[in-house]
């Protein structure tokens, strides 16, 4: 599957990771179908944000409610690895739900894209689109 991601969404991911470092940033990936139109930052509410992330449940619930009312779909999530690699960590694998959503991981100035399947994380190719 070719994932479409807007240049604006990628810019948001890279900017947020830089601003929040050395803590992990996190947030939601919104769009329709296989196109991610926006990355929306959320507060990392994990008690150890320098090593872990937990998306603020208030932000997630608000996005899901907006989706039910016809808004953008919550296609997935993102977070950063400030001192790591742009691939799922052991912790990411342990916390993943296998729900088929997309994960973006930001590290070392790069963004990698993954689908969280029941069998584990599957790398995704992407096509950059204007937006």
Description:
With 131 residues, the chain is of the alpha/beta class. It has a single domain (2-129), classed as Cytidine Deaminase, domain 2 (3-Layer(aba) Sandwich). The chain has helices at 7-20, 57-68, 90-95; strands at 2-6, 26-32, 35-42, 73-80, 102-107, 110-117, 120-123, 125-129. The chain has an eight-stranded mixed beta sheet. The radius of gyration is 13 Å and the shape is globular.
Biggest β-sheet, characterized? 8 strands, mixed
Strand content: 35-45%
The proportion of residues forming helix, as a percent range, comes to 10-25%
Domains, number: 1
Going by CATH, the homologous superfamily would be Cytidine Deaminase, domain 2
Task: Say how many strands there are.
Answer: 8
Tally of individual helices: 3
Features:
8-stranded mixed beta sheet; 3 helices; Cytidine Deaminase, domain 2; alpha/beta; 131 residues
Task: Describe the SSE topology.
Blueprint: E1 2-6, H1 7-20, E2 26-32, E3 35-42, H2 57-68, E4 73-80, H3 90-95, E5 102-107, E6 110-117, E7 120-123, E8 125-129
Parallel strand pairs: 1-3, 1-8, 4-5
Antiparallel strand pairs: 2-3, 2-4, 5-6, 6-7
Nutshell version of this structure?
This protein is 24% helix and 39% strand.
């Amino acid at each position: 599957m070719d994932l479409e991601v807007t240049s604006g969404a990628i810019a948001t991911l890279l900017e947020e990771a830089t601003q929040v470092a050395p803590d992990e940033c996190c947030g939601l990936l919104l769009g329709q179908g296989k196109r991610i139109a926006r990355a929306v930052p959320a507060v990392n509410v994990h008690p150890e944000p320098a090593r872990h992330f937990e998306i603020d449940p208030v932000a997630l619930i608000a996005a899901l409610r907006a989706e039910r009312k016809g808004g953008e779909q919550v296609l997935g999530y993102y977070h950063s690895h400030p001192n790591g690699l742009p691939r799922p960590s052991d912790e990411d694998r342990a916390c993943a739900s296998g729900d088929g959503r997309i994960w973006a991981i930001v590290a070392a100035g790069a963004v990698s894209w993954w689908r969280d399947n029941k069998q584990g994380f599957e790398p995704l190719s992407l096509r950059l689109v204007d937006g």
